[in-house]
Here is the input.
Amino acid sequence: MEQEEVHAINPHDYLSKVQTEVRDTQRAFLLEWIIDVHRKFKLRPETLYVGQFIIDKFLSKKAIKNTQLHLLGVTTLLISTKYEEIYPPDLRDLLAVSENKFTKTQVLDMEKEILYTLEYNLTAPSAYRFMERFRKLSAHTDDNEVFFYAQFVLEISLLEASFLQFKTSYLSDADLILSTKQLKKVDCWNKEVQTITGYSTQDLSEVVKEVRLFCHEINPKFISILKYKFSKPEYMKVSNHEFKF
Here is the structure.
């Protein structure tokens, strides 16, 4: 997984180098909408990360207009659910949740364009997969509340394009570190964990600092959907915790 993630990193500055109309705030709003649709359809966690990867990979290769951004989001949901879900939503349902702003033909044409542009390379090791793996390394992180809180922070992190500069394994580790500091008041990244993962505290210091700063500085209105999602009992209401890490 570690070798695959290096080759799959998307350029974190593609919005300024490739796109002429799409900006980072618009990307963030699109991902927030996808997170909300993902919640409403009760999709698998990995489906969200496949969708985010496809969006960033496609936008790093092809400039689109503002008016195409929502169409890209709907089509990405179609592709990622086909890839990850046993029973993916019907295209009619995806069109309905987007208020029928697009036709079936428009979505299918965009699907072809995405697949051709990405040469059918649609996935990479996600931060969520690494988080599932690394949570087992410590008694502090192998805790559902800690995991859900780390997942909450991770989904907030998806909204920030500059975090694409970090390996997904680094993001997952940073979120687990921040979550255990918040909920357990301990540093979970001890020498044993560092030895097993090969990632030192120093390796992770920058990403931990950047994620912490982003969570404290982001406008709460921008993460209202995420706070609602993670306030539910199935996530142990972790978003009710203020950021104190």
About this structure: The chain is about 60% helix and 0% strand. The chain has a mean pLDDT of 95. The domain at 2-117 is CATH 1.10.472.10 (Cyclin A; domain 1).
